[in-house]
Amino acid sequence: MLSAAESQALWLSLEVASRSVLWSLPLAVLVAWVLTRARFPGRTLFDAFVHLPLVLPPVAIGYVLLLLFGTRGPIGRWLLETFGIELAFSKSGAALATAVMTFPLMVRAIRIALENVDRGLEAAARTLGAGPLDRFLTITLPLMFPGILAGAVTAFSAGLGEFGAVITFVSNIPGETRTLPLALYTAIQSPNGEAMAARLAVMSFALGLVGLLVAEAFARRMRRSLGR
Amino acid sequence: MLSIALRKKRDGFALDVAFNAPTPGIVALFGRSGCGKSTTIDLIAGLLAPDEGHATLDDITLFDTRTGAHVPAEQRRIGYVFQDSRLFPHLKVESNLRYGQTRARGVEERIGFDEVVALLGLHTLLARRTHQLSGGERQRVALGRALLSQPRLLLLDEPLASIDAARRDEVLPYLEALRDRLSIPMIFVSHQFEEVLRLATHVVLLDGGRVAAQGSTSAVSLRPELRAIVGPDAVGAVLEGTIASVDEARRLAELKLGNGTLRISARDVRVGMSVRVQLLARDVILATEPPHAISVRNAIQGVVADVTDDDNDAKLVRVDIGGGFVLSRVTTAAVEALRLTRGSSVWVLIKAVSMRGHTFTGPARSPES
Questions:
Q1: Nearest CA in chain B to A227
Q2: Percent of chain A whose pLDDT exceeds 90
Q3: Distance from CA of B31 to the nearest CA of A (A)
Q4: Does the pLDDT value for residue B125 go beyond 80?
Q5: How near does any CA of chain A get to the CA of B278, in Å?
Q6: Which architecture characterizes domain A4-225 according to CATH?
Q7: What residue ranges define each of the domains in chain B, with the CATH number in brackets?
Q8: Strand B26-30 and strand B52-57: pairing?
Q9: How far is residue B61's CA from residue B238's CA, in Å, rounded to a whole number?
Q10: ipTM of the complex
Q11: By CB atoms within 10 Å of each CB, which of A69, B70, B292, B341 scores lowest?
C-alpha cells in the first residue's frame, strides 16, 4: 500500500521522534524540577528561555542549531573532534532539532505533574528515613509518572511532525533526514506527487490522533490507580 | 528524659516552648488550635528548623543551636503519624508499612512486621490500596508504618482528628496497647481532653505559643489554666487508683483512691488493675458532716486545700483526699454557708454514674478483645 519512499519516511519519523524523546526526557524532568522547586535569581528568565521554542519561528531555531552544532559551530566542531559525532545533516541532528522544539511541551506536562505531588508525602518519607535522592526516586517520581508519560507521548506526537527546525538544520536527505512532514512537503512540490501527499497527510493525521489518545489514556489510568 | 526547648518565629507567630518529660511515657501537647502544637512537633521531627533551641532524648542530641549539633530529619529516627495519614498512594498497604522498615536496616529491630500487623489488626488490609481504606484504617496503617521505622520517639499529630467520633474507638485502644506494651516514648498533639485522659502520662498545656502549665496528667488537671481551654464544665481532677473488687453482674468496680473507695461503672477491669478516672468538678458535692440516708454511694473524707474563684457565683474547692486531690465546684453562697476554708474537714460525694474509668498502664490486653 505504501511506496518504499513513504514507509522509509514513516519509519524515519518514528525513529527520530523516539530518539528525541529519550534524550530530552531526563533533562525535561530536571528542568521541570528546577523550575518548580528551586529558587534562584534569574529563574523567570530561565523559564522564558525554556519556553522560547513555542514562540520562535522553527526556522530560527534550526538556524541557531546550525550555528552552534554545525561542523564549524563551537559545539559541533568539539563533538566532531572529540567523539567523531556529526549532527548536521544526520538523523541524530534531526532528533536534536525535534527535541529542542518539543522540549517546552514536555517540561510543561511534567511540571504540572510535579506541582500536584503532595509535598507532605515527601515529608512523611523523610521521617521514615529516606534521604533526598531516595525520596525523589521512590515518592516524587512515581507520583509524577502519569505527567511524565503524558508529556513524553505528547512530545513524541508533536515530534513526528516537526518541519521547520529539521529542514533548516539537517536539510531534506532521503533516508537520513526526510521525515514524514519533509516527505509530504517534497511530494507537494513534485509534479505527480498528489496521491503520495494525500496518503502521507492521512498518515500524519492518524498518528497524531493515536498519540493524543494514548497520552490521555495513560494519564487517566494512572490517575485511577492513584485513587484520584 | 526528653528535654525540649524551642523558639521559632513564623508568619507573625512566636513559639517559645520548653518542657522536660520522663521517658518512656506519653507526653500530650494540649491546647486550642493555633497554639503551636503542630509547629512544636514539626520542629522536633526536623521538618522545620528552629530559630533557637535544643531537643535531647535520653543521651541523644537531636539538635542544639548552641553547639550547632543537628541530625537531619531522615536520620533522626523519629516516627511521625500525621493528622492526614499521608500514606503513599502509589504503594499498597504492605509496601507502605515496609517503607520505613527497609530504611531502618542496621538498626536493632525492636518491633517486627508480624508483631505490628498483629498489634494493629492490619492482616486483612495488607494487599489493599490505600484509597480503599477508611479513616480509622488509614491511621492504623500510618501508625504501623511509623512503628516499623524503629523510632526512638513517636510523634502523633492529632491522630484521631480526621476520624469521626464514633470511629475513634477503632484507634484509641491500639494507642493504649502501644503505650502499655512497647516502651517507645511518644508525644501526641491533641485538643480533646478525653484523649489526654486516656493516653498521657505527662501533659504540656500550650497557649498562644507558650507553655501555660506542665506536669503529670493528675497535676495538670488541677491547674486553673486548663479551664480556659476545656471550658468550665470539663474541669475535673484526674486520679489514678487500683481496682479493689469487681461486681461483674452490675458492671461496677470498687476503686481504691486515697482515703477511701469509689464505686465506678467500668467494664473489662480486673482486680489489681490500675485505673484512671476524671471526677468533673461540677459532679462533686461537698458535705461538712458524714452523710447518711442518701443515694450517693461514694463518700471520701478529705481536707480543703484551697478555695479559688471560678466565676461570679461559684468557687472551685480543692480537697486533699490523701494521695490525691479532688476539685469541686460550689456556689459562693454554699462556700459561705458551710464556712469552707483551707483546713476544713469535708466529705466528698460523687455519684458512681458520673465517672468513666479508663484502664491505665494495666496488664496487657489483646487489642482485638
A1: B131
A2: 61
A3: 23
A4: yes
A5: 35
A6: Orthogonal Bundle (1.10)
A7: 2-230 (3.40.50.300), 237-359 (2.40.50.100)
A8: unpaired
A9: 33
A10: 0.83
A11: B292
